[in-house]
């Protein structure tokens, strides 16, 4: 399979993006001092000795936002191809294509309204 | 193989690094002027070498790693944040000739890849094993995913108008009218959401110095810290370019002033957006965290969805329909 120059270019950008941190950090390793002491390795907590671990349970609210995000991001996945072919489909089936998407969006907005009502979107 | 496939990106990387150096300097100068100060003026003529000195200093600083941190992830996070920031620049058409990958789904590529940085910030915050960093990282991720939705939805109007995800075709479609006018609602939503994606004032909660010390990068020092800062400013470059391409007509000249070369127009529009971002930082207070999350879901998302409906309906209106 012949490699499309466009895809090749994207890959080169990715490789250069990977190369810069490697080169810069390796160069830094030669230049910077390395003198670790136990005091330096303590987790910073405004000068107070930290108690316990930081890998603890956190607020469930973050999880709810993540869930909402997934729902609407998947909606976007459906919206993009629809938007690209909107004009083509409109000349084909008329405004039915809009109505179809409105029904889809309506159900998602219903979900958003439910979250709104349940005060999931509030942050205290 | 065409050597420009490699040389081009390397030159762009150097330009971007130069931009970052002077964007930071310019930001500090402008903020200084806004606040009635002089700003950096000691290193080099007019302080022009201030950021260069700062970068060199960071390069020579010890790389302190906390004992309790998850070392592998801790070291990976800054690189993981930077890689997509640079990779997305491939699809941006700067002018009709200066562009790298004329990718059919360029806009999607940009939006999809840029959200990888959210993971990097989360990884950085979590692997530090620091309470401030964890809170900063979680907040950052919550904010960025919340504003990702309106950002993604606000451009649907443009896609419907152009019928393509190719950024070149989107610019070509703006020969007559820039999308900032027919897509006014979308533009406002996009602009606000993009500022939030950039973690810039008034949405810079992840880095609220007064609440979280510094946010997800508390434990980072030296060049790893520099990579997080670099990522932020590379995204500023990318987002200002994308805003120019999507809403300000890209390299197209306004009022038929085509004797001025396209690259000048691009740089002018791009420069205005960058200045605008700094201007906002100088004049707006930081918003509260509860306002921040509500604003994305209760205001911006409904507006972005409304924009889709309005675009679809205006397509049906005679005379106006030709703009959509």
TrEMBL record, chain A:
<protein>
    <recommendedName>
        <fullName>NADH-quinone oxidoreductase subunit A</fullName>
        <ecNumber>7.1.1.-</ecNumber>
    </recommendedName>
</protein>
<comment type="function">
    <text>NDH-1 shuttles electrons from NADH, via FMN and iron-sulfur (Fe-S) centers, to quinones in the respiratory chain. The immediate electron acceptor for the enzyme in this species is believed to be a menaquinone. Couples the redox reaction to proton translocation (for every two electrons transferred, four hydrogen ions are translocated across the cytoplasmic membrane), and thus conserves the redox energy in a proton gradient.</text>
</comment>
<dbReference type="GO" id="GO:0048038">
    <property type="term" value="F:quinone binding"/>
</dbReference>
<dbReference type="InterPro" id="IPR000440">
    <property type="entry name" value="NADH_UbQ/plastoQ_OxRdtase_su3"/>
</dbReference>
<keyword id="KW-0874">Quinone</keyword>
<keyword id="KW-1133">Transmembrane helix</keyword>
<feature type="transmembrane region" description="Helical">
    <location>
        <begin position="95"/>
        <end position="116"/>
    </location>
</feature>
<comment type="similarity">
    <text>Belongs to the complex I subunit 3 family.</text>
</comment>
<feature type="transmembrane region" description="Helical">
    <location>
        <begin position="6"/>
        <end position="27"/>
    </location>
</feature>
<dbReference type="GO" id="GO:0030964">
    <property type="term" value="C:NADH dehydrogenase complex"/>
</dbReference>
<dbReference type="Pfam" id="PF00507">
    <property type="entry name" value="Oxidored_q4"/>
</dbReference>
<dbReference type="GO" id="GO:0005886">
    <property type="term" value="C:plasma membrane"/>
</dbReference>
<dbReference type="InterPro" id="IPR023043">
    <property type="entry name" value="NAD(P)H_OxRDtase_bac/plastid"/>
</dbReference>
<dbReference type="GO" id="GO:0008137">
    <property type="term" value="F:NADH dehydrogenase (ubiquinone) activity"/>
</dbReference>
<keyword id="KW-1003">Cell membrane</keyword>
<keyword id="KW-1278">Translocase</keyword>
<keyword id="KW-0812">Transmembrane</keyword>
<keyword id="KW-0472">Membrane</keyword>
<dbReference type="GO" id="GO:0050136">
    <property type="term" value="F:NADH dehydrogenase (quinone) (non-electrogenic) activity"/>
</dbReference>
<keyword id="KW-0520">NAD</keyword>
<keyword id="KW-0813">Transport</keyword>
<feature type="transmembrane region" description="Helical">
    <location>
        <begin position="62"/>
        <end position="83"/>
    </location>
</feature>
Automatic annotation (TrEMBL), chain B:
<protein>
    <recommendedName>
        <fullName>NADH-quinone oxidoreductase subunit H</fullName>
        <ecNumber>7.1.1.-</ecNumber>
    </recommendedName>
</protein>
<keyword id="KW-0830">Ubiquinone</keyword>
<keyword id="KW-0874">Quinone</keyword>
<feature type="transmembrane region" description="Helical">
    <location>
        <begin position="292"/>
        <end position="314"/>
    </location>
</feature>
<feature type="transmembrane region" description="Helical">
    <location>
        <begin position="6"/>
        <end position="25"/>
    </location>
</feature>
<dbReference type="InterPro" id="IPR018086">
    <property type="entry name" value="NADH_UbQ_OxRdtase_su1_CS"/>
</dbReference>
<feature type="transmembrane region" description="Helical">
    <location>
        <begin position="147"/>
        <end position="165"/>
    </location>
</feature>
<keyword id="KW-1003">Cell membrane</keyword>
<comment type="similarity">
    <text>Belongs to the complex I subunit 1 family.</text>
</comment>
<dbReference type="GO" id="GO:0003954">
    <property type="term" value="F:NADH dehydrogenase activity"/>
</dbReference>
<keyword id="KW-0520">NAD</keyword>
<keyword id="KW-1278">Translocase</keyword>
<dbReference type="GO" id="GO:0048038">
    <property type="term" value="F:quinone binding"/>
</dbReference>
<dbReference type="Pfam" id="PF00146">
    <property type="entry name" value="NADHdh"/>
</dbReference>
<keyword id="KW-0472">Membrane</keyword>
<feature type="transmembrane region" description="Helical">
    <location>
        <begin position="233"/>
        <end position="253"/>
    </location>
</feature>
<keyword id="KW-1133">Transmembrane helix</keyword>
<feature type="transmembrane region" description="Helical">
    <location>
        <begin position="107"/>
        <end position="126"/>
    </location>
</feature>
<dbReference type="GO" id="GO:0016655">
    <property type="term" value="F:oxidoreductase activity, acting on NAD(P)H, quinone or similar compound as acceptor"/>
</dbReference>
<feature type="transmembrane region" description="Helical">
    <location>
        <begin position="259"/>
        <end position="280"/>
    </location>
</feature>
<comment type="function">
    <text>NDH-1 shuttles electrons from NADH, via FMN and iron-sulfur (Fe-S) centers, to quinones in the respiratory chain. The immediate electron acceptor for the enzyme in this species is believed to be ubiquinone. Couples the redox reaction to proton translocation (for every two electrons transferred, four hydrogen ions are translocated across the cytoplasmic membrane), and thus conserves the redox energy in a proton gradient. This subunit may bind ubiquinone.</text>
</comment>
<dbReference type="GO" id="GO:0009060">
    <property type="term" value="P:aerobic respiration"/>
</dbReference>
């Amino acid at each position: 399979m012949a490699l499309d120059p466009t895809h090749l270019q994207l890959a080169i950008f990715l490789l250069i993006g990977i190369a810069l941190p490697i080169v810069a950090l390796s160069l830094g390793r030669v230049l910077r001092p390395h003198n670790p002491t136990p005091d330096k390795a303590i987790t910073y907590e405004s000068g107070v000795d930290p108690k316990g671990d930081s890998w603890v349970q956190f607020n469930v609210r973050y999880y709810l936002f993540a869930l909402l995000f997934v729902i609407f991001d998947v909606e976007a996945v459906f919206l993009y191809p629809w938007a690209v072919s909107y004009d083509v489909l409109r000349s084909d089936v008329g405004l039915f294509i809009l109505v179809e998407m409105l029904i889809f969006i309506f159900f998602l907005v219903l979900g958003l309204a439910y979250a709104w009502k349940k005060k999931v979107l509030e942050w205290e | 193989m065409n050597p420009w496939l490699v040389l081009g990106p390397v030159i762009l990387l150097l330009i971007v690094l130069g931009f970052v150096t002077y964007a930071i300097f310019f930001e500090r100068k402008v903020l200084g002027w806004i606040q009635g100060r002089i700003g950096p003026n000691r290193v080099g003529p007019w302080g022009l070498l201030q950021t260069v000195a700062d970068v060199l200093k960071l390069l020579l600083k010890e790389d302190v790693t906390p004992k309790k941190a998850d070392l592998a992830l801790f070291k990976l996070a800054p690189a993981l944040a930077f890689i997509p920031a640079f990779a997305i620049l491939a699809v941006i058409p700067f002018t009709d000739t200066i562009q790298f990958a004329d990718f059919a789904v360029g806009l999607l590529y940009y939006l999809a890849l840029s959200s990888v940085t959210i993971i990097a910030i989360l990884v950085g915050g979590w692997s530090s094993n620091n309470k401030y960093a964890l809170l900063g990282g979680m907040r950052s991720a919550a904010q960025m995913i919340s504003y990702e939705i309106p950002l993604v939805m606000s451009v649907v109007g443009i896609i419907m108008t152009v019928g393509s995800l190719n950024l070149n075709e989107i610019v070509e479609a703006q020969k007559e009218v820039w999308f900032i006018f027919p897509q006014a609602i979308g533009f406002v939503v996009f602009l606000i959401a993009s500022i939030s994606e950039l973690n810039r004032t008034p949405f810079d909660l992840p880095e609220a110095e007064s609440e979280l010390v510094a946010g997800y990068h508390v434990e980072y020092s030296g060049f790893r810290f520099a990579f997080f800062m670099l990522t932020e400013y590379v995204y500023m470059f990318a987002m200002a370019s994308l805003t120019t391409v999507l809403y300000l007509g890209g390299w197209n000249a306004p009022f038929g002033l085509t004797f001025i070369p396209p690259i000048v127009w691009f740089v002018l529009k791009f420069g205005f957006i960058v200045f605008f971002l700094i201007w906002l930082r100088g004049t707006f207070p930081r918003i509260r965290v509860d306002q921040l999350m509500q604003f994305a879901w209760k205001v911006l998302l409904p507006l972005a969805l409304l924009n889709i409906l309005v675009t679809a309906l205006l397509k049906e209106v005679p005379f106006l329909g030709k703009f959509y």
